[in-house]
Specification:
The protein is α/β, with parallel strands linked by helices. About 30% of the residues lie in helices and about 25% in strands. It folds into two domains: about 140 residues, VC0802-like; about 170 residues, Vaccinia Virus protein VP39 (Rossmann fold, 3-Layer(aba) Sandwich). Helix 3 runs parallel beside helix 4 and helix 5 crosses helix 6. The protein binds S-adenosylmethionine. The site of S-adenosylmethionine has 20 residues, from loops. GO terms for molecular function: methyltransferase activity. This is Class I SAM-dependent RNA methyltransferase.
């Protein structure tokens, strides 16, 4: 296989653009596509993408392509594929196939041919629950073989054990912060912080901590894996000093305890502070103005919508009265609730969030 290949960074739908911006900031030349971003690189780029990207949900290495017009041809070409260049004989794998606009239209039959080729030609075991997944896409009769180099979704940073109601995914939180213009230097405040996702992500970004520093990845099971080079890459990520101006509050005392525990596990307890208070009791932080980012209850998943209008109106009033100079971002599935704040908001693109469609609504400086 070539030293350089296409690497597809899977995005949360609607957050492709900030992911591309993040990849560009890390030195790649990203191309935005529906559902993700393509970069070109080698195995060390795959490791670095998994270790450092905050907005990707997984990283796929496109390791090969061939045409197949029917199943017998797929079988033959899959048997010739240099599996030993990428897979290890002793690591169980499974294959997932999708077919689109192709003469081969039966994904199950295609999966069976490719799995059999891997088992018989390479000798690797197949297992329906294997952690290592080979993703095969057959589109216009072209078979693309990708390896899922991530394993468990990248929003699982490995620090959040405690989860409050309706938590925001870390990958989304990081991209919404980026869309607010957060670059690690500004204070951040989330007055309905739940399990603390926005505040902890912001503090980690400020401290230069790699999001994947505490977890394992699928690529560690591949033939190309070099443990010494990986340790060196991880070890080179030195945290930088950061200002302790990342604030969360919530009216729910158990949410605050979770936030504190999560921040502790993430190694950012000293940069964050969490207080149990309702939005009406919010106090202006003593630092220079920064970014408020909040993901209030929507009603679709938790509670009913009616009283939420009053809550949003009160929240907007509090922000106007106490947070002059700050900028506000509200993540919600309900445009009417965002408008009920009375804040001058502009909406961003629709983003898929656990079956809901949310948007980031932003103000300028209040
Ligand atoms: C959708 S959740 C936020 C989830 C959070 N972004 C996370 O990642 O875990 C909404 C939060 O708003 C809090 N909340 C609801 N009403 C509130 C109020 N009046 N004052 C403060 N917090 C409130 C809830 O306790 C809940 O934790």
């Amino acid at each position: 296989m070539d030293d350089r290949f296409e690497i597809f960074l899977v995005a949360t739908p609607g957050l492709e653009a900030p992911l591309a911006a993040e990849a560009a900031a890390l030195g790649w030349q990203p191309v935005v596509q529906p559902g993700g971003v393509t970069i070109t690189g080698g195995w060390t780029d795959v490791w670095r993408a998994n270790l450092w990207l905050r907005g990707a949900t997984r990283v796929l290495a496109r390791v090969g392509q061939f045409r197949a017009l029917h199943l017998a041809q797929l079988d033959k070409r899959a048997r010739k594929f240099p599996w030993a260049d990428v897979l290890c004989r002793d690591v169980p794998v499974r294959v997932e196939t999708t077919c689109k606009a192709s003469r081969i239209y039966h994904a199950g039959a295609a999966t069976q041919r490719i799995e059999r080729a891997i088992a018989e030609e390479l000798g690797a075991p197949l297992a329906p629950d294997a952690a290592l997944v080979i993703k095969v896409r057959i589109e216009d009769d072209l078979v693309t073989i990708s390896l899922d180099t991530t394993g468990e979704s990248l929003h699982k940073r490995g620090h959040k054990e405690a989860v409050a109601k309706a938590p925001m995914r870390e990958t989304m939180a990081a991209m919404f912060l980026r869309e607010m213009g957060f670059d690690g230097s500004q204070p951040v405040l989330d007055p309905m912080c739940g399990s603390g996702t926005f505040v902890i992500e912001a503090a980690e970004i400020a401290a230069g901590l790699a999001p994947g520093r505490s977890r394992g990845f699928g690529f560690q099971q591949l033939a190309s894996f070099d443990p010494a080079a990986w340790d060196a890459m991880r070890g080179a990520a030195a945290p930088r000093p950061a200002i302790p101006h990342f604030f969360g509050s919530d009216r729910d005392a158990s949410a605050i305890r979770m936030s504190q525990a999560n921040a502790q596990r993430a190694g950012v307890a000293a940069l964050t502070s969490f207080d149990c208070r309702a939005i009406g009791d919010l106090e202006r932080p003593g630092c220079s103005p920064g970014i408020v980012i909040v993901n209030p209850p929507y009603g679709a998943r938790i509670g009913n919508k009616g009283p939420l209008f009053g809550l949003h109106a009160a929240m907007g009033q509090v922000f106007k009265e106490r947070l002059g100079g700050w900028r506000v971002g509200i993540v919600t599935s309900e445009g009417a609730l965002a408008k009920a704040t009375g804040l001058p908001l502009e909406s961003g693109p629709v983003v898929a969030h656990g079956g809901l469609k949310v948007r980031l609504w932003r103000t300028g400086v209040l």
